Amino acid sequence: MLTKLRIRNFKKFPEVEIELGSPVVFVGPNNSGKTSAMQALALWEVGLRGSAD
Questions:
Q1: CA separation (Å) from 8 to 42, 44, 48, 50?
Q2: Three-state DSSP class for 40?
Q3: Helix intervals (H) in the chain
Q4: Tens digits of per-residue pLDDT, 8-17?
Q5: pLDDT tens digits for 28-46?
Q6: Residue 44: what pLDDT?
Q7: Helix, strand, coil shares, percent, the chain, to 5
Q8: Is the pTM of this model over 0.90?
């Protein structure tokens, strides 16, 4: 299980670290980075699999 998400130099995040619990819910106003955080996590998963099916 992931416990922490660290994002560096991705979209609007110069550097951020997010502690993850269970369940994880991203809540915030428009343009606060919720979708960017999810995209960073998805990109990490693609890197783990080694392909972009």
A1: 14, 12, 17, 20
A2: helix
A3: 34-49
A4: 999 999 999 9
A5: 999 999 999 999 999 999 9
A6: 92
A7: 30, 25, 45
A8: no
Distances (CA, A) of 10 to 3, 21, 22, 43: 20, 22, 24, 11
Joined together, the tokens standing for residue 32 give: 């606060």
pLDDT on residue 50: 82
For the chain, the domains span 4-49
In order of 22, 34, 35, 46, the CA distances from 41 in angstroms are 16, 11, 10, 9
